[in-house]
Amino acid sequence: MLRSGMIVVVAVLAAVLIGWKGRASQALSQQAPQAAAPRAAKAPSNQEINDAFVQKISQQIAGHEQEPSGQVFKNIQVDFLKKVPAGRFLLIMNQGYSQALGVNCKHCHVEDDFSRDDLRPKRCARDMALMHFDINQRLAKMQNLEPNPNGHFINCSTCHHGQIDPMAQPN
Questions:
Q1: Which is nearest to 90 in space by CA: 130, 113, 61, 112?
Q2: What is the pLDDT of residues 6-36, one digit of tens each?
Q3: Is the pLDDT at 48 greater than 50, yes or no?
Q4: Alpha-carbon distance 76 to 134, whole Å?
Q5: Cα–Cα distance between 155 and 157 in angstroms, integer?
Q6: Looking at the domain 46-142+153-160, which fold is it?
Q7: What's the mean per-residue pLDDT of the chain?
Q8: Could you give the count of Cα atoms lying within 13 Å of 166 in the half-sphere of its Cβ?
């Protein structure tokens, strides 16, 4: 009898302890703030990537910003861009081409050597620059256009609207 009574007491104590432990852990979990789930690191925007490249390149060309970009940078093949001051050239690339296409520098350029022509988009951008220069030359010669005090011109945004594919619907 003593033995079976002891088993009952142990069983009751175990049930009480288990119940208490369960309620205690439940109470603690309700009181303790939940640890924040780790957030995935936000990927940098195209503009943040471009701005970092421009900052790095600006440091490399410091003191040469007013010199023609064709003398400061390697492998600029578009004649009218060769004459643009190097500092302005960086702005054209950062705020013109990349924003008009909705891309960052790495879309057209090999990251460790911007002068390389390995990427098709860079070669295509050259052709497009020549095309838009030609169109602007033709627009300037047209006599029957409505007068515009700023002149008539197009740029990458005229067709691309911030997207690589000019035929895609604008955002």
A1: 61
A2: 444 444 444 444 444 444 445 445 555 555 6
A3: yes
A4: 18
A5: 5
A6: Photosynthetic Reaction Center, subunit C; domain 2 (1.10.468)
A7: 83
A8: 9
